[in-house]
Amino acid sequence: MSQTPLKIFIVDDEAPARNRLRELLGDCGEQVVVSGEAANGWAALEKLAMTPVDVVLLDIRMPQMDGIELAQHLQKLNPPPAFIFTTAYDAYAIRAFELHAVDYLLKPIRLSRLSEALSRVRAAKPVAADVLHELQQEPRRNLSIHERGRIHLIPVEQVLFLRAEAKYITVRTVEREYLLEESLTSLEKEFAAHFVRIHRNCLVAKAAIEGFERVGSYEGEGSGWMVKLAGLPERLAISRRQQHIIRDFG
Amino acid sequence: MNKARSIKQNHPSDALPNFRNLGVTLRMLLLGNALALLAALLQANDGMDVLLRMMQIATMLTPVLLGSLVLLWLTQPVLNKLAYWQGVLAVNAQVALFTLLTCLFAGEFFRPDSAGYFDTVRCVLLSVAMSSLLLMYFRLRARVLSRSLEDARLQVLRARIRPHFLYNTINAVLGIVRAQPKLAETALEDMADLFRMAMSDPQDKAALRQEISICKQYIALEKLRMGERLHVDWQIQEMPEDALIPVLLLQPLLENAVYHGIEPLIEGGTIRVSLKRLGGELQIVVENPVPVADLPRTGNQIALQNIRERLALLFDIEASYQVTHGTDFYRVEITLPYAKEVTR
Hints:
The complex is a heterodimer of chains A (250) and B (344). By secondary structure, chain A is α/β, with parallel strands linked by helices. Chain A has two domains: 6-135, Rossmann fold (3-Layer(aba) Sandwich); 158-249, CATH 2.40.50.1020. Chain A is 29% helix and 32% strand. Chain A is built from eight helices and 15 strands. Chain A has a five-stranded parallel sheet with strand order 2-1-3-4-5, with helices on both faces. Chain A has a five-stranded antiparallel sheet with strand order 10-9-8-12-11, with no helix packed on it. Chain A is elongated, with a radius of gyration of 22 Å. By secondary structure, chain B is an alpha+beta fold. Chain B has two domains: 11-146, no CATH class; 161-337, 2-Layer Sandwich (Heat Shock Protein 90), CATH 3.30.565. Chain B has ten helices and seven strands. In chain B, helix 4 (84-110) packs across helix 5 (117-160), helix 5 (117-160) packs antiparallel against helix 10 and helix 7 crosses helix 8. Residues 1-12 of chain B have low confidence and may be disordered. Chain A binds chain B through residues 13-20, 23, 40, 61, 63-64, 88-89, 106-109, 141, 157, 193, and chain B through 163-164, 166-168, 170-176, 178-179, 224-227, 263-266, 291, 293, 295.
């Protein structure tokens, strides 16, 4: 009982819902302390990067960045907090939570359920990344990159291309490059609406494609096609197998 | 009264069509002429003959059909007060009488080569047969549409008690009950009103000001949760307060606007509601911003489909329904015939 109190952070876009959680956490006694709250994913990431907490209570349905996407970004914090999701109604998510034994609370939230979930937190293992990935119903809106203790969010629509290199993926925007630790195949699957594969190791943003160029003799492999992307001086090679995209986009 | 209605739910009471509705009139004209064409096809010997016979039939049919329509238009208020079977008899009697008079006084003019009494009797019999067929058609149509209306009633109910709205609102009320008990009281009262309205018959109509007040209560509940993110611009200065509209026609549109338009926006936005009278019509416009990146969703189709069906049953072609999906806005525009509330 002499444990340090659990530090808890609340993320919900609705003020009364945050208020409710604060009051209930107050009723939980001295075991817990509310260390902060945020109304959206961006604000939460910013605050949590500065002051780590033990548990994040996060709403699933929020504008711009839903709770599951936020959890995926927060997971890159060191050490990652434990997550307890809150939702009013989301049959799909609830089924998935049950399946993977992820903790969740149904709104309206009850004190008994809340303290039960909190009491499990210390013993619980952190949620695995692939589980969160599976919970994600819609593609993420941002890629998160962990860089020198900070988490950068890059809106997916700013990404020009993704290229697999050794064990990382290079994420290219107009301004600069980032390194991401994910698999190109799963990125391709998640963002199928945004990106198209032009090469075994490269996905480009469909919206950024400006044109195609035929290159006479390219590195001794005979003739080939390159794609030009908006805002990028370099050209990217299209592999022979993916040449059909020229027809699809030309 | 309410109990009786709920028992009869599966057998919606039959009613005569509204003879003053443009859609009904058009349907009668079209079907009447279609029957005439069928008769011409049966009699004709070749292609040209069909036209000839059709014209022959039309010379008699058209005046009778148009005359009967005028007569029915005139007697509509009286017919409305009769029981269904009395109404059917009255309509047939009117049509028979009108046909008889036309034959007696203008028969020479329309059908110079008529065969006297036989022809008159035949015309009257055919008219009654046609009007009975048309009445049967309208009865069947009403039944089919009311079945979807019954489904619609359940859907409306389910859509009203949209779990997302219900649980979030209860959670929000719980969130303010300790700090602002008065506000929580009002919220619960608003919720009760909204649900009472949702349980009413979707065929009922109410004065526009009632619908507006329920909509404002609904918005107050949503504001409780969303605070400053939700704004509604009510352009209702020119609204005819006494106009009758189907209950809960506007509220589902607002709910869609909140759920699909305002909630996904961090900064929120403004829903524009405009209600005004344009001549003999009432125009309802609801417009809301939508996130630019969002692909058109299909999630809100149930509520909209439901509104469409109710409009078709209640107003036939006299109501219109239009959706415009821009890159950053979504607009629903409904026009329906303006009808005044009758003070009892």
